[in-house]
Amino acid sequence: MEVFDTSGDGALQPDEFVTIDRFRNQLDALTREEKRLALEAAEEAKKEKAEAEILEAKMTLLNDGPPTAQDKAVSLLPYLFPLMDGLAYGRFLLQNADAANPIVDVIAILYTIYRSIPFSGFVAFFALNILSSVTGINRLVRYNMQQAIFIDIALFFPGLIGGVIGAIGGSNIPTGVSEIGTDAIFVTLLAVLGYCTVSSILGITPDKLPLISQAVTDRMPTIDSFDDELRYIPRQMREEEEEKDKEKDKKDGPK
């Protein structure tokens, strides 16, 4: 009735009555509109359901859930890699350590086993790099694998800097200075690994290391890293696609 109530007084006046054909046409129009709205609502619900299913599939594919006790324990193992490679910086401290210290004995055994494996450093590097890309592994474990690699790479720079300084100076760095420097590097390494260990045991991602943690975080896949067909899209490719979409929107926008 509201459609025909042109005066807006809530009642049909004599001049507002219409023919049956017009009335029927109006009812048909209203019916079509209701069907259209119902169809749009059904399509929207179907679309939301499909998006929810895709999101659930992505979350299943990407193990970003809270780590289990086993995950926490396994997440500590990658840090043996930089520890073994960093023992060279602790040679002065370890030489002066108590020979009966069980920790030193364990480290010595692990180091012997590590060095007995041909190309152990390369094997560890590639193993951690490959395993860290397996999204079914818990995120904490994958994160620590990547971070262990970055820490190990960081250990390369002190030796490089020392070699450059020695080459520029034309002589070797004094033993006393070298000992203090290597001790400081080893203590820093132990502090870093200690932080990562405690944080991982608590189930907290150790992402507070300057420079290193941010680089690791940038490499970690997220739900947005997968398309609707659950294919992994590297970060650089995603950024390039987003940039192309922005450029396209600018071109297609109002001139």
From TrEMBL:
<feature type="transmembrane region" description="Helical">
    <location>
        <begin position="149"/>
        <end position="173"/>
    </location>
</feature>
<dbReference type="InterPro" id="IPR005691">
    <property type="entry name" value="Tic20"/>
</dbReference>
<keyword id="KW-0472">Membrane</keyword>
<feature type="transmembrane region" description="Helical">
    <location>
        <begin position="185"/>
        <end position="204"/>
    </location>
</feature>
<dbReference type="Pfam" id="PF16166">
    <property type="entry name" value="TIC20"/>
</dbReference>
<dbReference type="GO" id="GO:0031969">
    <property type="term" value="C:chloroplast membrane"/>
</dbReference>
<feature type="transmembrane region" description="Helical">
    <location>
        <begin position="117"/>
        <end position="137"/>
    </location>
</feature>
<comment type="similarity">
    <text>Belongs to the Tic20 family.</text>
</comment>
<protein>
    <recommendedName>
        <fullName>EF-hand domain-containing protein</fullName>
    </recommendedName>
</protein>
<feature type="compositionally biased region" description="Basic and acidic residues">
    <location>
        <begin position="245"/>
        <end position="255"/>
    </location>
</feature>
<feature type="coiled-coil region">
    <location>
        <begin position="20"/>
        <end position="60"/>
    </location>
</feature>
<keyword id="KW-0812">Transmembrane</keyword>
<keyword id="KW-1133">Transmembrane helix</keyword>
<dbReference type="InterPro" id="IPR018247">
    <property type="entry name" value="EF_Hand_1_Ca_BS"/>
</dbReference>
<keyword id="KW-0175">Coiled coil</keyword>
<feature type="region of interest" description="Disordered">
    <location>
        <begin position="235"/>
        <end position="255"/>
    </location>
</feature>
